Amino acid sequence: MPRVAFKIDSSDTLEYLVNDDDEFHEIEWMGAASLVDGQVEMVVHRRLLADDSNGVGEHLNETESLFDSVAKQHITKGMVVHGNFFFNVKSAKDGMRSLRSKTEPQFFRPLTAYRKPNEVSAKVM
After folding, report:
1. Which of 7, 10, 19, 112 could bond to 86 as cystine, CB 3.0-4.6 Å?
2. d(CA 1, CA 32)
3. What GO molecular functions are on record for this protein (predicted)?
């Protein structure tokens, strides 16, 4: 089954990748649709405490649970999602090369720190 990945770079170009099932690395899928030509709508996470009558037939309350070993109890709270999307449109043939080359600067940025010679703590930029 083909998978699709989307990536956006700083020049706001859209990349659409479809794999051949032997070449594409797994990416966690969120959800996307193109309801209008020239637009892509991405759904990262949806949380509703009441049914919105859009087909599910129940509320959407995805939670995360942790076990607090000190208090010896489970803690459950509503999930909150934070993140960035990067889009870039390329052919399937060049897609992974483009994805790798544009992903590296996003995740492997150098950490720059400065301090004066007589200070103990550094200022991170």
Report:
1. 7
2. 17
3. alpha-mannosidase activity; carbohydrate binding
Backbone φ and ψ of 95, nearest 5°: -60, -50
pLDDT at residue number 12: 44
Cα 116 → chain centroid:
38
Distance in angstroms (rounded) separating the CA atoms of residues 46 and 28: 16
Stretch 28-42: mean pLDDT: 72
The domain locations on the chain are 4-124
Burial of 95 (0-12, 13-18, 19+ CB in 10 A): buried
Q: Cα(96)–Cα(88) distance, rounded to whole angstroms?
A: 11
Q: Is the pTM of this model over 0.85?
A: no
Q: Which tokens is 79 given?
A: 């999930």
